[in-house]
Amino acid sequence: MAKIFYDKDCDLSLIRAKKVAIIGYGSQGHAHALNLRDSGVDVQVGLAPTSKSVAKAKAVIGSMDDAALAMPWKMVNGNLEIASMPRSDFLRSVLFNHWYHHRGQLTVYLRETGAKVPSIYGASADETPGG
Question: N or C: which end of the chain has fewer CB within 10 A?
Fold first, then answer.
């Protein structure tokens, strides 16, 4: 029979002092990330932009309340803190910058090939939205 471990069976202070990265957000990564988060561990999830789990991660981010979004996000190298900002600012910055970056790449590529830039990312000088 399998032994089930609970928070009381472990010394969580050993892991709470660290940042834990979960690479992937499939069934196991999702469960591990949420369990660690609920145990007070600082968890970061890494996903490829094309991952099928992006929608799940978006749902979790969307379920965060203002207090969770106001908590600091930090970029660290060992014990050296490189940057810190509220999670909401980090998400907004990364998501929008990434979006603008790809719109710029697509625009250059399409114009170089003689194609019109579609309005799928918002208004375009080449085409009216929806038309």
Answer: N
